[in-house]
Design brief:
The complex is a heterodimer of chains A (214) and B (173). Chain A has eight helices and no strands. Chain A is mostly helical and 214 residues long. In chain A, helix 2 packs across helix 5, helix 4 crosses helix 5 and helix 7 packs antiparallel against helix 8. The longest helix of chain A is centred in the middle third of the chain and has 41 residues. By secondary structure, chain B is mainly α. Chain B is 80% helix and 0% strand. Chain B has seven helices and no strands. In chain B, helix 1 packs across helix 4 and helix 6 runs antiparallel to helix 7. Classes of the chains: A mainly alpha (214), B mainly alpha (173). At the A-B interface, helix 2, helix 4, helix 5, helix 6 and helix 7 of A face helix 1, helix 2, helix 3, helix 4 and helix 5 of B.
Chain lengths: 214, 173
C-alpha cells in the first residue's frame, strides 16, 4: 500500500479536474469559508463543489462525507482535507483547510476581541442568548435528520440512550464513554456471514430533503 | 507559559475526541474550560458558542476566542493549531488508508456501530447548550420554531440563527 500517494493517483476512476489550479482550489474554499453560515457548511460545500462547479460526482462527495463523519474532527474540515488531497495532495489539503478557516477565524477573533468576556450592552447579551436558543433548535433538527435510521432501531436507541446518560446524567468523561460504548456498537454491527448491513452511507436513502439531509 | 501548555493539551485532546464533529465534544469542552480549569464562566462559554454561530465557516472556530482571551494572539494561534492540526493529519492518512480498504465489510461495521454513539453524543451536546440558553418561554419558543422550520423546509440555518437572536433581543428587552 502506498500511503505517500494521494488517492487521486491510486483511484483512477475519479480523477482530479485538470483545469482547476491550486490557486483556484484555494479561492473556492476561501469563498466557502466566507459565505457558509450557521452550521450548514457541508450543505454549502455540496452545493458549490458538486452542483455548481462539478468538481466531483455527488457519489464521491457522499463517500468523502461518510469518511469525514467517522473520523475525529469537524466534518467541514475533514471534507476539505479529503477533497483538497484528492485534487492536489498535501498542498491541496493544506490550502483547502486554510481557505475554509481563515475568513471565520478573522471574524470570530474580531468579535471575540470586542466581547472580551463582558457585555457592554445588555441587548448584545439577549441577542447571543437567542442565537444559542435557535442553535438548540438547529441541533435537534440536525440530530434527528442524521439519526433517522438509528431512531428506528431498538439496538441503536439503546446505544443512543446509554451514551446520552453516560455523558449528560452520569457526567462520565468523553474518552471513557467512547472507549466503552464504541467497541460495543462496532461489535454489534460486526460482519456476519449471511447478514447484510444496509448500504453505506444510510442518509442517501432518505426520501425527504432538508438542509442537513445530505 | 503553563497556561499555554494547558490550552494546547486541552484542545489537542478535544480534537482527537471530536468523533462526529464539534457538537459531541461540547459537554467535555464545557467541563474542561469552565469546571476544571476555570478559564470561563458558564455564561461566557455560551456567549462564545453563540459568537461561533454567527461567524462564517465552521462554528467551532469559536475555540480561537478562548485562546485569545487567555493568552492573546499567541493563545489563539496555539489553540487553532492544537484543535485543527491533529484532525487534519489523522484525516489525511486515515482517508488514504480508508480508500485502500474500500471493500472491507468492517467499513460498514464501523459506520453503523459508531452512528448511534455519535447521535447520543450530539444529543448530549445539544442538551448542554439548551441548559445554558433556554431559561424562559421565549427561548423555548425560538428553539422549537427553529427546529420545526428546519424539519419542514429547506431553509438556510444561518438566517434562523440571526432571526432567533433578534427576536429574543426584542422580546426580552
Amino acid at each position: 500500500m502506498d500511503l505517500e500517494k494521494p488517492p487521486s493517483e491510486i483511484k483512477s476512476e475519479s480523477p482530479a479536474r485538470p483545469e482547476v489550479t491550486l490557486l483556484g482550489l484555494f479561492r473556492m474554499f476561501l469563498t466557502l469559508g466566507a459565505i457558509s453560515f450557521g452550521g450548514g457548511v457541508v450543505a454549502y460545500m455540496r452545493e458549490y463543489l458538486v452542483r455548481g462547479e462539478h468538481w466531483m460526482e455527488d457519489e464521491d462527495f457522499l463517500d468523502a462525507l461518510e469518511v469525514s463523519e467517522t473520523l475525529p474532527g469537524l466534518n467541514a474540515i475533514n471534507l476539505s482535507v479529503i477533497i483538497g488531497d484528492r485534487m492536489y495532495g498535501v498542498a491541496g489539503a493544506a490550502l483547502a483547510v486554510l481557505g475554509m478557516t481563515m475568513p471565520g477565524a478573522i471574524v470570530v477573533l474580531a468579535m471575540g476581541a470586542l466581547w472580551q468576556g463582558e457585555l457592554h450592552f445588555r441587548v448584545v447579551g439577549y441577542f447571543l442568548t437567542g442565537v444559542a436558543a435557535a442553535a438548540v433548535g438547529l441541533l435537534v433538527a440536525l440530530t434527528v435528520q442524521l439519526g433517522h435510521y438509528q431512531f428506528r432501531r431498538l439496538i441503536d436507541i439503546a446505544l443512543i440512550a446509554v451514551t446520552f446518560i453516560a455523558v449528560s446524567v452520569l457526567h462520565l468523561s468523553l474518552p471513557i464513554v467512547l472507549l466503552a460504548v464504541a467497541p460495543i456498537g462496532i461489535w454489534l454491527y460486526r460482519p456476519v456471514r449471511g447478514r447484510v448491513n444496509p448500504g453505506v452511507p444510510h442518509f442517501r436513502r432518505h426520501p425527504r430533503r432538508g438542509w442537513f439531509r445530505h | 507559559m503553563n497556561r499555554l501548555v494547558d490550552l494546547v493539551g486541552v484542545f489537542a485532546l478535544l480534537s482527537v475526541l471530536a468523533i462526529g464533529g464539534g457538537t459531541p465534544i461540547l459537554p467535555e469542552m464545557q467541563y474542561l474550560t469552565v469546571e476544571r480549569f476555570h478559564w470561563l464562566t458558564d455564561r461566557q462559554f455560551r456567549d462564545i458558542y453563540s459568537i461561533g454561530q454567527v461567524a462564517p465557516g465552521p462554528n467551532m472556530l469559536m475555540v480561537l476566542i478562548i485562546g485569545y482571551r487567555l493568552k492573546g494572539a499567541l493563545g489563539a494561534l496555539a489553540v487553532g493549531l492544537a484543535f485543527f492540526l491533529p484532525d487534519c493529519i489523522i484525516t489525511l492518512f486515515a482517508n488514504r488508508l480508508w480508500e485502500h480498504y474500500r471493500d472491507s465489510p468492517w467499513r460498514a461495521s464501523v459506520h453503523y456501530g459508531m452512528a448511534p454513539v455519535v447521535i447520543g453524543l450530539m444529543l448530549s451536546g445539544t442538551y448542554a447548550i439548551a441548559a445554558l440558553s433556554i431559561h424562559n418561554v421565549v427561548a423555548l419558543i425560538i428553539a422549537v420554531s427553529a427546529c420545526s422550520i428546519l424539519m419542514w423546509r429547506h431553509v438556510n440555518p444561518g438566517v434562523l440563527i440571526v432571526v432567533g437572536g433578534i427576536l429574543y433581543a426584542l422580546f426580552a428587552h
